[in-house]
Amino acid sequence: xxxxxxxxxxxxxxxxxxxxxxxxxxxxxxxxxxxxxxxxxxxxxxxxxxxxxxxxxxxxxxxxxxxxxxxxxxxxxxxxxxxxxxxxxxxxxxxxxxxxxxxxxxxxxxxxxxxxxxxxxxxxxxxxxxxxxxxxxxxxxxxxxxxxxxxxxxxxxxxxxxxxxxxxxxxxxxxxx
Length: 177
Ligand SMILES: [Zn+2]
Ligand SMILES: [Zn+2]
Hints:
The chain is an alpha+beta fold and 177 residues long. The protein folds into two domains: 4-127, no CATH class; 141-177, no CATH class. It is 25% helix and 34% strand. It contains five helices and seven strands; from the N terminus they run ββαβββαββααα. The protein has a five-stranded mixed sheet, with helices on one face. The structure holds zinc ion (2 copies). One zinc ion binds next to loops.
């Protein structure tokens, strides 16, 4: 259930959702995400304010930015935020923002509806790592021959003529002659 939930249908004691289908997942990651689970609790704070708490977990197949190998990334993010009906009385809203400072992240909506799929989708995008790496120490691909340096040492870097090591090696060689 990832539809739009009207504020009026959310009780003060809360309503729980468990989402196990990935239709709401960001489109470019959807086919790579399996399994996907989101546990969400919606609680009415007031007529115009809903608190959303929960977690999103997903196993996602990603391609490493450095070595281009596919690896599994375990996405795991807790969320806690307020969905609030935007008020058109500006003065009131400013006050409310001050009171709310340091509180939970607030999403302002134009209609009293929680668009659960959209909120979850944004949370995934916000919490994806900026760099996709199969491991922090990934050595990447050799820029000369394209070998995956995590799997084997091709030796190209040592052979490179312009490297300081190559120059030193040549000097050493000359001296020996
Ligand atoms: Zn890698
Ligand atoms: Zn190489």
